[in-house]
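Today's session is about reading a structure prediction critically. Students often jump straight to the picture, but the first step is always the sequence itself: look for stretches that repeat, for charged clusters, for runs of hydrophobic residues. Only then move on to the predicted structure, which in these notes is written as discrete structure tokens rather than atom positions. Here is the chain we will use throughout the hour.
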Amino acid sequence: MTQAAERRAPGDPPLPDRLLAVATRMFAEKGFGNTSVQEIVEAAGVTKGAMYHYFGSKDDLLYEIYHRLLGLQTSHLERIADGPGTAEERLRAAAVDVLDTSFRHLDAFVVFFRSLHLLSRDRREAVRAERRAYHERFRGLVEEGQREGAFRADVPADLAVHFFFGAVHQIGTWYRPGGRLEAEAISEHYADLFLNGLRT
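Below is the predicted structure for this chain, in token form.
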């Protein structure tokens, strides 16, 4: 493939984004271990040299998928948590957001929970630390609502957060676009079920 063939056409996403989009789709469909670098670059329409300019390995692609999804959800949570409204209102907004972003980036979400164990130990720990920080900020909203008297004090905040995210993490095993319920409706139902279990 010539350098000209790798050049971005008007309206095309930047090459790193294109490679990540292709890798995310293929990892979700075939699995990380069953997808080769050659298949990724062929589907993206670039050479291996072009890919290695941005990503040193297939492992780098996998890590970036996690990092981007977590980064997006964390930035949203920080904006919501620091925004206006009661703790209950902000917690509901945060619950809906994590579901909405998971549905919008369903392939990355599926890859996240299917292939995290395949990352190198250092990167796996880095991802887990980022996810822990997200959960702690989310838990802080539960605790704020408990202090305000909006939520039951007899339910440990940690347990409530684990319960909610345990349900969220299963979405990739059963949700299929085009089903009876729209993703937005599912997000609202999940948030309602979560908040109803917390209210006094």
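Discussion point for the tutorial: Confidence is low (pLDDT under 50) at residues 1-5.
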